[in-house]
Design a protein that fits this description.
Layout lengths: L5 E4 L3 E5 L5 E6 L2 E4 L4 E4 L3 H18 L6 E4 L4 E5 L2 E2 L2 E8 L2 H7 L6 E11 L8 E2 L1 H6 L5 H24 L2 E15 L2 E7 L7 E5 L9 H4 L5 H12 L13 E2 L2
Antiparallel strand pairs: 1-2, 2-3, 3-7, 4-5, 5-15, 6-7, 8-12, 9-10, 9-12, 10-11, 12-13, 12-14
Helix pairs in contact: 1-6
Family: Belongs to the SAICAR synthetase family.
EC number: 6.3.2.6
GO molecular function, one term: ATP binding
Length: 253
């Protein structure tokens, strides 16, 4: 597809002007980052896998009536999505204690939570995406109370879907992060799932062995990130036609 005007470049994706008004081309890069981009590498094939996996999950959401921005995959690294106004929050759903929650609360990593816990972080890399409460969100006008009710409902529905899909292929959905976008039909606003759903934004552990199949492999130097993502894609039956190289990451200075 012919390259169009760049709109935004993030740590893992670049967004370009779409071919039609109200559309965006989302390009998946091979860059990997951790610890607020303090650790960085280029991992060959990562973008291809995340593009394929995000397509799989977004189509699954569409099939069960959960609105999202996905329109179609264009090629191995690009997909066409609906333009939307991103709510400035990261929405995190946790089923097991891990990562920052385990550290923050002194909970043993891997402990199953009595119910899914939904947390919110302000999207601001300079501040390290700080944890915020619904009181903060209301006070600063980042989202209305109706928005928050809808966001909570969307997040829990996505959790039910992803948990079931992953359990079916022997993977435990520990936690995941989504972003929410606003779209407008005249004066009417709708909230939809946006950004991506991939091993970059989920914690995925093998149910039998506890092996990590997500970005913690990169964060904690546990082996090949490409191999981990390829295993997730293999179990879900989502594999690119061309072989994805599992070569060692190239570190970025």
């Amino acid at each position: 597809m012919a390259r169009r005007k760049k709109i935004y470049e993030g740590k893992a994706k670049t967004l370009y002007e779409g071919p039609e008004p109200g559309t965006i081309v989302q390009y998946f890069k091979d860059d990997a980052t951790a610890f607020n981009a303090e650790k960085r590498a280029t991992i060959e094939g990562k973008g291809v896998l995340n593009n394929m996996l995000s397509e799989y999950f977004m189509l699954g959401l569409t099939n069960i009536g959960i609105p999202n921005h996905f329109i179609k995959r264009l090629n191995m690294r690009e997909q066409l999505v609906r333009a939307c106004e991103i709510v400035p929050l990261e929405v995190i759903v946790r089923n097991y204690a891990a990562g920052s929650m385990a550290k923050r609360l002194g909970i043993e990593e891997g402990m199953q939570l009595p119910r899914p816990v939904v947390e919110y972080c302000l999207k601001d890399d300079k501040l390290g995406d700080p944890l915020v409460t619904e009181e903060h969100i209301a006070a600063f006008g980042w989202a209305s109370q109706q928005d928050m009710d809808d966001i909570l409902s969307l997040a829990l529905r996505v959790n039910d879907f992803l948990s079931g899909v992953m359990y079916g292929v022997g993977i435990r959905l520990v936690d995941f992060k989504i972003e929410i976008g606003r779209v407008y039909d005249g004066d009417y606003q709708r909230l939809i799932v946006a950004d991506e759903i991939s091993p970059d934004s989920c914690r995925l552990w093998d149910i039998e062995t506890g092996q990590k199949l997500d970005k913690d492999v990169f964060r904690r130097d546990l082996g090949s990130l490409t191999d981990a993502y390829t295993e997730v894609a293999r179990r879900l039956g989502v594999m690119p036609k061309a072989n994805v190289s599992a070569s060692k990451p190239t570190l970025i200075n």
